[in-house]
Write a structure and sequence with these properties.
The complex is a heterodimer. By secondary structure, chain A is of the alpha/beta class. Helix content of chain A is 33%, strand content 12%. In chain A, the strands form four sheets. In chain A, strands 2-1-3-4-5 form a five-stranded parallel sheet, with helices on both faces. A three-stranded antiparallel sheet of chain A has the order 8-9-10, with no helix packed on it. Chain A has a two-stranded antiparallel sheet with strand order 6-7. Chain B is globular. Chain B is 70% helix and 2% strand. The longest helix of chain B has 34 residues. A two-stranded antiparallel sheet of chain B has the order 1-2. Classes of the chains: A alpha/beta, B mainly alpha.
């Protein structure tokens, strides 16, 4: 539905607004997303219905293309898609924009001008406007189905009744698949849920979240031709944790405070050197965001605890932190161990580790760059790693383990979103039972320890 | 009032509503910028509501599969009507209000109750799961908070010995209700955030549901819904200014001027709360409301009743 060419003042007014963009994150999407938004003029929206631009950042695996096309078709006209790291489908080759890492980045103002041009042909739908289950006409007793309930459904299957976990009441249990591009979940995580009200009753299938940006992990292993200084690595670590905390704050409704955290984090990624993160910690405490869940909520049992590494495990009392061995004489004080292992403890752990990393970076400013010897393990923000990892693409219809199911069953929606947000992507993959393997060309064991 | 006067009043009401709601949108952006620590860009804050409205109107209206069309479109209009009605109840000069009802404060309570219905319908009509969950959650929390507000409003009406809003304003001749009913004020702000779907009480339109009840709306429908939300915040602020800050009472300035200033103060407070306090999980919030806030409101009512009985509250005696 194009705007009539005559309403120029109207379009000029609309063009002043920041461009609403829905980001469909694929693998290694951080660079694309950061570069697109760093110049301003665009804002992220949570629902594709609120967006005019679809930014496909990073590589989206083949088996998730159907989901991506569904998201694309939900954007209202006029719409345009920007493909950064993936190839657009055939039907969009002429209209969609393709960007590469070393190419020029489309400016939001240019995209807006394109969208509002009088002769702009908005992108067509990628999927046909047909229901997934074809309508086969009326059944014997009226609208689909044989008898009152059940039987062979005509048209879309009904939500059948089932026992509620809380009180055994028999109510409808609709099924919902969220992800892999759902804004509240980590990128790539998709869950097929059975709900009653807003309480998760069962998880049928899932797709694990995408691993963290490989540039990040490779920086810690010194894989790049220029080894990074300790100060730079510690700021990378702090920025990584602050990104996670910002996501948690957004889920608690504190978007403005989350922007503050993101600004400090992105500043550190861009070379900024804040002396201390104390103002952020004060703001975090004042907002009562830590109290969003009950104390003791979100604890893992021992079996699951042994699968994960990194800050999540340290939040349960594990003392392992390679900083001490790697930096003798630097008087590194490990972050306070919360020990409770619940959701609150994991948040505290991130905050404390970010602060410790920032303080360490300030103290060791000017130390020479060095890269670890091959095969030596380093403490990355997601745990100990010893070699580059390959993180193969996963099957989108994995059956989650019984352990994982038992974690989320009975949680209400916000609790589940906050719980999943309290782990980084690698820890979540480990909880789901995905085994990471070393890159094929790297010798030695490469399992994330 | 003749029908032409009535029409004029209606037009005037919507003109004031639109202008004031625009200012609320501006203030919301200013507070968000302050909390985020970004550089304050006043020009952006003033032009953004208008330009984003223009952009929304240029979008296509979204369609879902078999929505309840009538209720979906009606919900946003009804929400705006509730906000406008609430604003019409506010007295802006001694004995003068657009809608001067003997039981004005009870009518306001009824508007709060209808908000629950409207928000649920908005979530349900889209025939989509995420808005539906938003609607469910809102009903659970909204109903509970509404009970709390009933006691707060009765407590505010007690010293005035009348349910008429003008009488409540007059009863604050010597001292504002805020000063000796602070608990009631805090509880009322919690309600205000709930009916306008803001901040810590925003269970209907929250980000963990990708926008909740507005996840599937776009274009003019989204514009109308968000306009209605801001209008409801304005309406609540004006009501709080009337019931707790003495409304139009004040020297030197005309009544309308004082009402505007007091509404502005409440708005700043409400917006600061909405950008600064986290939203806790619904089950925790329900525990807080039923185990803490509701008993607190009972004791508050008891306290106010006793004060009124023993003549400590100097109304308009």
């Amino acid at each position: 539905m194009a705007i009539a060419g005559g309403n120029v003042w109207w379009k000029k007014l609309a063009a002043r607004d920041t461009l609403p963009v829905f980001v469909a994150r694929g693998r290694d999407s951080a660079t694309a997303e950061h570069r697109f938004f760093s110049r301003g003029g665009a804002r992220r929206v949570d629902s594709p219905r609120h967006a005019q631009v679809l930014l496909v950042a990073g590589r989206v695996p083949e088996n998730l293309h159907n989901a991506l096309h569904q998201v694309h078709d939900q954007l209202p006209h006029p719409r345009i898609s920007v493909w950064w790291g993936s190839a657009p489908p055939e039907s969009l080759r002429d209209i969609a924009l393709r960007v590469s890492d070393d190419g020029s980045v489309p400016a939001p103002a240019d995209l807006t001008a394109r969208l509002f041009a009088a002769d702009y042909r908005s992108e067509p739908d990628l999927l046909s406007d047909q229901p997934p289950a074809p309508w086969r006409g009326r059944g014997d007793h009226g609208q689909g189905g044989e008898g009152m309930m059940g039987g062979k459904p005509f048209g879309r299957p009904m939500a059948m009744t089932g026992f509620d976990l809380r009180d055994g009441l028999q109510l409808d249990r609709p099924r919902l698949t969220v992800g892999p591009f759902f804004s509240a979940l980590p990128a790539g995580l998709s869950l097929e849920l059975e709900l009653q009200g807003d309480v998760i009753q069962d998880i049928r299938r899932c797709h694990p979240p995408f691993p963290p940006d490989r540039h990040l992990l490779e920086a810690f292993l010194g894989v790049h031709s220029e080894p990074a200084t300790i100060a730079r690595l510690e700021r990378l670590r702090a920025a990584f944790h602050l990104h996670h905390l910002a996501h948690y704050l957004r889920l608690c409704g504190l978007s403005a405070l989350a922007r503050r955290f993101m600004r400090v984090a992105d500043g550190m990624l861009g070379g900024g050197r804040p002396k201390s993160l104390a103002p952020l910690r004060k703001a975090f405490l004042r907002s009562a965001a830590i109290r969003a869940t009950a104390p003791g909520f979100g604890q893992l049992n021992d079996v699951l605890l042994h699968r994960i590494r990194g800050p999540a495990r340290r939040a349960a009392g594990d003392q392992g932190d390679l900083h001490r061995e790697a930096l003798p004489g630097s008087e590194f004080f490990p972050a306070r161990h919360a020990k409770a292992g619940d959701l609150r403890a994991r948040l505290w752990q991130w905050l404390h580790e970010a602060e410790a990393a920032c303080a360490l970076a300030t103290r060791l400013e000017g130390s020479p760059a060095e890269s670890p010897a091959e095969g030596v393990a380093v403490e990355s923000p997601v745990g100990r790693i010893a070699a580059p990892l390959s993180f193969p693409d996963a099957d989108p219809h994995l059956e989650p383990s019984a352990q994982f199911k038992s974690l989320l069953e009975g949680m209400e929606w916000q609790e589940a979103m906050l719980f999943l947000a309290s782990f980084d992507a690698v820890a979540l993959r480990q909880l789901l039972g995905v085994v990471e393997s070393a890159a094929a060309d790297c010798p030695g064991e490469g399992e994330v320890q | 009032m003749s029908w032409s006067e009535g029409l004029l009043a209606l037009v005037g009401l919507f003109a004031v509503l639109t202008a004031a709601t625009y200012l609320v949108a501006v203030m919301d952006r200013c507070v968000a910028v302050l909390v985020a620590g970004d550089a304050m860009d006043l020009r952006y804050c003033f032009t953004a509501p208008v330009s984003s409205a223009a952009r929304l109107l240029s979008q296509q209206r979204s369609r879902t599969e078999h929505p309840d069309q009538l209720n979906w479109r009606w919900a946003a209009t009804a929400y705006l009507t509730l906000a406008a009605t609430g604003l019409a109840l506010i007295p802006f000069a001694p004995g003068r209000a657009l809608l001067d009802v003997q039981s004005g404060i009870v009518l306001w309570g009824a508007l709060e109750a209808l908000t629950v219905v409207v928000v649920f319908l908005h979530g349900w009509s889209a025939n989509s799961m995420l808005p539906l969950i938003g609607g469910y959650r809102y009903v659970a929390v909204g109903l509970s908070v509404m009970l709390v507000s009933m006691f707060v409003l009765i407590a505010a009406a007690l010293p005035a010995q009348s349910l008429r809003l003008d009488a409540i304003v007059q009863s604050q001749a010597n001292v504002w209700n805020l000063l000796w009913q602070p608990v009631g004020f805090v509880l009322f702000v919690a309600l205000g955030l709930s009916v306008s779907l803001r901040g810590p009480m925003n269970y209907g339109d929250s980000r963990d549901l990708a926008g909740g009840t507005q996840a599937e709306v776009s274009a003019s429908d989204q514009l109308l819904w968000n306009f209605a939300r801001l209008a409801m915040l304005l309406s609540f602020s004006a009501m709080a200014a009337t019931v707790f800050l003495g409304g139009y009472r004040g020297a030197a300035l005309p009544g309308f001027g004082w009402l505007a200033i007091k509404t502005l103060l409440i708005l700043i407070f409400a917006l600061a709360c909405s950008h600064g306090i986290a939203r806790i999980t619904p089950s925790r919030m329900l525990s807080v409301i039923w185990l803490l806030l509701l008993p607190l409101s009972f004791f508050h009512l008891l306290f106010v009743g006793l004060m009124t009985l023993y003549g400590f509250a100097h109304g308009h005696h």
